[in-house]
Amino acid sequence: MSADRARASIVALAREKLVHARDYARARFQLRGAHFDGFFRGRVYSGGKVVVTGASGMSFAPRVFFRGGMIPTELECAPGAELAVGADTGFNYGVSIVARTSVRIGARCLFGSMVRVSDDDGMSSAPVAIGDDVWIAYGAIICPGVVIGDGAVVAAGSVVTSAVPARTLAVGNPARCIPLEVSARVRPREASSL
Amino acid sequence: MRVEGRVCVQGAGTIRIGAGVRLAASVAPIELNAGPGAAIVIGEGAVVEGGCSIEALASVRIGSGARIGAFSKIVDNHFHRAVGPRSEHAPSVPVEVGERAVLGPRAVLLPGARIGARSHVAAATVVSKAVPEATAIFGMPARMRSMA
């Protein structure tokens, strides 16, 4: 490897480390008061503005990350409530998560931009539980009392009002469920929302 | 072209904005994100309202005189796979909005959506297929009705 290429790759690596350090510092500042798995093991990253209320009820597993964007992410946890996020879960910009009782999110989940999750909408109040490996696409809304199984996918723009089984695609308003394998193979008429 | 408010422009691709386009972002920013090799083309006289996000990995074309409602989303790639490794991208499918078409607020155009000229996408409607000209599309799951 030539000296120039070696130098360029060292610079790129250094820049990446600096960005990580900046995003880690930003996350620890924005989420101050929350519970982490430790100073080095519990690394959480934030690439943009995250507005936090009630951090003492929140806990973040390692490598949770928040992508920045044009609209801030909002995390709210009422006194006595809990908001738990599993490892490697990522949130795009504009996500809003509100916990008045309990919101639990599993590992390796993906939250698209502008997704809203709440366990209290003014009419009903019930805990929300999201499993592992769940992908919630752009703009979906998760209503109180919803339980989403592992590996499920919530289609863009859907409003989920009842339980979503594991490895299922939830699509529509209110969301109806289709097994993931079926949705990938067949494109039935009424699944035009995906 | 008239820009009100903040427009967030990202990506290494091309963004082409025609004459007389109005980006009305005074309430919430507009995001234009064209990936490498991608193109976002906004035709003459189109209006894009605040909070909209347009992301292209291949091609997004908005016809002249079209109106994109507030907090809409237009993407030509799902960015993740539903079945298989989550971090893998599916292939992009270009998205097109026809001339003088209207998207209501919070409309979502997914890869493969093609809105015909003078058609109307109702508020909060998710579209992923072709919509003919002068057609209203509404509901979830979406239904179409001719406006002719």
What does this structure look like?
The complex is a heterodimer of chains A (194) and B (148). Chain A is 18% helix and 30% strand. Chain A has helices spanning 3-30, 180-185; strands spanning 35-36, 45-46, 50-53, 58-60, 65-66, 73-77, 82-85, 90-91, 96-99, 102-105, 110-111, 116-118, 128-130, 135-136, 141-142, 147-148, 153-154, 159-160, 168-171, 176-179. In chain A, the strands form three sheets. Chain A has an eight-stranded mixed beta sheet with strand order 2-5-8-11-14-17-19-20. In chain A, strands 1-4-7-10-13-16 form a six-stranded parallel beta sheet, with no helix packed on it. Chain A has a six-stranded parallel beta sheet with strand order 3-6-9-12-15-18, with no helix packed on it. In chain A, β19 and β20 form a beta hairpin. The longest helix of chain A is centred in the N-terminal third of the chain and has 28 residues, at 3-30. The radius of gyration of chain A is 18 Å and the shape is globular. Chain B is built from no helices and 18 strands. Chain B has strands at residues 2-10, 14-17, 22-34, 39-42, 47-49, 53-56, 59-62, 67-68, 73-75, 95-97, 102-103, 108-109, 114-115, 120-121, 126-127, 130-131, 135-138, 143-146. In chain B, a hairpin with a 4-residue loop joins β17 (135-138) and β18. The mean pLDDT of chain B is 95. Classes of the chains: A alpha/beta (194), B mainly beta (148). The A-B interface holds A 69-71, 108, 110, 113-114, 133, 135, 137-139, 153, 155-158, 169, 171-173, 180-181, 183-184, 190-194 and B 6, 8, 28-31, 51, 53, 71, 73, 75, 78, 80, 82-83, 86, 106, 108, 110, 124-129, 140-142.
